[in-house]
Amino acid sequence: MASGKSGGRAGLLGYAILYLAFLYAPVLFLPLFSFNDSVFIAFPLSGFTTQWYEQMFSDDAMLHALRNSLEVGAATALLSTILGLLTARALTQFRVPGGAAMLGFTSLPLFIPDIVLGISLLILLNSANLPLSLLSVIAGHTLICVPFAITVLLSRLEGFDKSLEEASRDLGETAWMSFWRVTFPLALPGIVSSLLLTFIVSFDEFLIAYFLAGNEATLPIYIWSQLRFPYKLPAVLALGAAILVASTLLVVFAEWLRSRGLDNRKRITVGA
Amino acid sequence: MSDEAFLRIAHVSKRFGTVLAVDAADLAIRRGEFFSLLGPSGCGKTTLLRMIAGFDFPDSGEIYFEGVRMTDEPANRRPSNMVFQSYAIFPHLNVFDNIAYGLRKERLDKASLTRRVEDALAMIKLEGFESRRADELSGGQRQRVALARALVLKPKVLLLDEPLGALDRRLREAMQLELRALQKSLGITFVFVTHDQEEALSMSDRVAVMSAGSILQVAPPRVLYETPNCREVADFIGQMNFFTGTIGAREGALARVDLGQLGQMNLTIDGRTGGEILIALRPEKITLSPEARQGGVKGTVAALAYLGERSHYSIAVEGLSEPVFVADQNSATTRGHAVGDIVYLSWSKEAVVVLPPS
Asked: Right CATH number for B241-355 from 2.60.120.280, 2.40.50.140, 3.40.50.720, 1.10.3860.10?
């Protein structure tokens, strides 16, 4: 039956290759055409150029949108990670009545379509007479990012030996100092990967930002607005390719950090 | 301040939901004493220890350290330190920083800090382990680091929550001796929680036996073993045979007790005439002989276990529902008894422990 087995393995490998090609081939057209010396996005390629990148980086509106996106992303990452940390800590450290229901409730925004969230937030802000600005985008993004932060931090804090903080208290530190000297450094890999993940989610988000940004534009909104002008398309592709590379690097870094953290924890609990 | 009340637990109760974890506990632990809290899991011994440490707080009652009320003080403001069951070695710090953790508050200069940590490492014989991380230590080494981390702060009381439970038998026995020696040389009061009665008996100056939240008896190991004050203590510490007797005629402090199949005995029982009592007999205090003796009780060997230096017999006695356990020392001259042999049981009056009926 050896041949049948290896045949099955070859089949699986072929399936995996097709699957990955299906996932990533379309994405690879972005960098490919961003270096193509033609306004038209079509084969055959006509030559190599970096002019689209030069055009992109000299576009003030684009740079402004980029700065907006970075600000919104950073603020969202910080806010949702702090909120996520508080929730995850409460759920793991104490026996919270209705904790499971609460966890389900906080992850609800993941299951509500963004367009519904965007419209409801817009209606809410309008009826409360609050102006639309980057602040409202940050609020909307925090709403959808908190569940991600909770998920990442919960997996880090679960199985945390409660007696570690007690030991710190016992050795003379206050509750606050115990958090800083023990819990925080141990949760740090989780905190960093939560920051990165929520940043990316916010940075890539279009629908909610589109509804709530008012006169400002985040990068995805800017890109969307550029699609109306065919001659600007190659520069958008250049921008897309640049974001793709940066996002990939960030996610890989976050994953690496998270798995390193898990490794550490595993070694610790195995030895205990 | 008298040594008698160095650490005093006064009528402390603690409830978790509907469970009364600790029920009106009273204890007076002496200075420099090795004191054990012994009981089955769930008896409230760990809860009581955690209230002494300042992790849990009594619903009622008071806790005093050297006469100072500490009932509501959190752990960081108590003159006690703890060795945790899981050891709770900080995984992100190396051995040096683990031991130095509590010294931060003393604001020592670098040289004296290093000296304090080095002294602690020497005490637990782990010199050269400064830069090891928690995951590079064996169970026994973690245990020592946890011990050093607590003792380096020179606590008035060291609290130990089943610290030897995770170690294998050989290491555990070595650590028992070492802990005991350390406690004697440092003169620090140890409060030691364990469910292992042998451990408690071999290490402690005094032991408090707990069951279902209550402290049943507080006594030195020998007293606990020889004269338990109730059936639960007698049952928990070692093996015990129990028989029910009826109190008959009295003559001064002595009363005639009718033990049914086991005959009659004159025992010292205060006050009462009539009614039932419980008498308890340790297996090693019963003598077995193949020949009938004056006052001997006839029985048949139902089962036996040969353990080398001694043998354990289970003896069926007519009229008793439970077999009688006998532990017989094996010497050069003993032949031992086989299953089915007829034997005669006898014991001295001094071996009998009189307990209130359960």
From this structure: 2.40.50.140
Chain A neighbors of B91, CB-CB under 8 A: 164, 186, 264-265, 268
Residue A137 resides in a domain: yes
Reported as a single tens digit per residue, the pLDDT across B278-295 is 889 999 999 888 887 777
* Cβ proximity of B54 and B77 under 8 Å: yes
**Where do the domains of chain B lie?**
3-236, 241-355
Whether A87 maps to a domain, the answer reads yes
Query: A interface toward B at CB cutoff 8 Å?
Result: 161, 163-164, 166-175, 181-182, 185-186, 264-265, 267-268, 270-272
Tally the C-alpha atoms within 13 A of residue A228's C-alpha that lie toward its C-beta. Answer: 4
A20 and A124 share a domain?
Answer: no
Domain count, chain A: 2
pLDDT given at position A264: 52
Give pTM, 2 decimals: 0.78
Quick one: closest CA in A to B135, which residue?
A: A268
Whether residues A20 and A103 fall in one domain: no
Domain coverage including residue A224: 54-271
Mutate to test the interface with B, among A95, A157, A170, A179 (most CBs of B within 10 A): A170
At A93, the amino acid letter reads Q
Residues A89 and A172 in one domain: yes
Same domain? For A27 and A59 the reply is no
Confidence band, pLDDT 50/70/90 cuts, at residue A257: confident
Cβ separation B92–A271 shorter than 8 A:
no
Comparing CB atoms, the residue among A171, A267, A270 nearest residue B81 is: A171
Pairing relationship of beta strands B60-65 and B68-69 according to DSSP bridges: antiparallel
In the DSSP assignment, the letter for residue B32 is: T
Encoding tokens for residue A115? 């367009």
Contact across the interface for B82 and A170, Cβ inside 8 Å: yes
Peptide bond into B220 cis (omega under 30): no
Nearest to A35, CA basis, from A24, A26, A46: A46
Q: Which of A54, A35, A53 is nearest to A45 (CA)?
A: A35
Tell me which residue of A266, A248, A243, A247 sits closest to A189, measured CA to CA.
A266
Which amino acid, residue B131? S
State whether residue B57 is helix, strand or coil: coil
Q: What is the pLDDT of residue B326?
A: 92
Architecture of domain B3-236: 3-Layer(aba) Sandwich (3.40)
Together in a domain, A140 and A230: yes
Look up the ipTM and state it. 0.81
User: Both A105 and A16 in a single domain?
Assistant: no
User: Nearest-CA neighbor of A107 among A144, A152, A155?
Assistant: A144
Q: What is the pLDDT along chain B (358 residues), one digit of tens a residue?
A: 445 579 999 999 999 988 899 999 999 999 999 999 999 988 999 999 999 999 999 999 999 999 899 999 999 999 999 999 989 999 989 999 999 999 988 888 888 999 999 999 998 888 888 888 888 888 889 999 999 999 999 999 999 999 888 788 888 888 898 899 999 999 999 999 999 998 999 999 999 999 999 999 999 999 999 999 999 999 888 889 998 888 887 777 778 888 877 777 777 777 666 788 888 999 999 988 888 777 788 899 999 998 888 899 999 988 888 899 999 888 877 778 889 889 999 888 888 888 887 6
CB atoms B55 and A174 under 8 Å: no
